[in-house]
Amino acid sequence: MEEKFEHTRNQPTELIKVVLYGPESTGKTTLAKQLAEHYKTLWVPEYMREYLQKKWDSEKKLVEKEDLIPIAKGQLQLEKDASQKAQNLLICDTNLLELKVYSEYYYDGFCPSEIKTEATKDNYSIYLLTYVDTPWEPDILRDRPNNREEMFRIFEAELKEQNFPYKILKGDKEERFENAVKIIDELLKKK
């Protein structure tokens, strides 16, 4: 089964990879774009949104279990492509750990073993966990406006369980951006 994600190997190891991670509608994409622009680097968008928007537009269906592996493969391919082009720093709007959390939440603990294996590899320099103090922005792919605090706790528990390095980002867009820059600047200094 491991071969399903074989194409992700041989990525540059000197690259600092920062993941924006957290519940839906917490400003991850906005912050990813801001950080990429600030550092003049690439950012990896969330493949699941693109995939599910196409599915909704063509079939009027949301995510199903059989979508998980194609979503994971798409996310990893986007990240691999960007990793090969980025110089020192890569900003990831999400990664497979987020897909694992959502899969287990929505499907009563189910997550394909291939995703679990890949998601729990320590491939990132730091996770920036976005708190739920941003305004909810509804769209067709978002469905849990009242479960944000619960989801935040689940996301943080997963980071603790995996013992992955992380910092929580709170506040408005400017505060989050400033705090993220401080964190990333420290990582760049250590490089």
UniProtKB/TrEMBL annotation:
Keywords: Nucleotidyltransferase, Transferase. GO terms for molecular function: nucleotidyltransferase activity. The keyword Nucleotidyltransferase applies. Pfam families: AAA_28. The keyword Hydrolase does not apply. InterPro entries: NAD_biosynth-regulator, NadR/Ttd14_AAA_dom, P-loop_NTPase. Residues 17-176 form the NadR/Ttd14 AAA domain. This is Nicotinate-nucleotide adenylyltransferase. It comes from Aequorivita soesokkakensis.
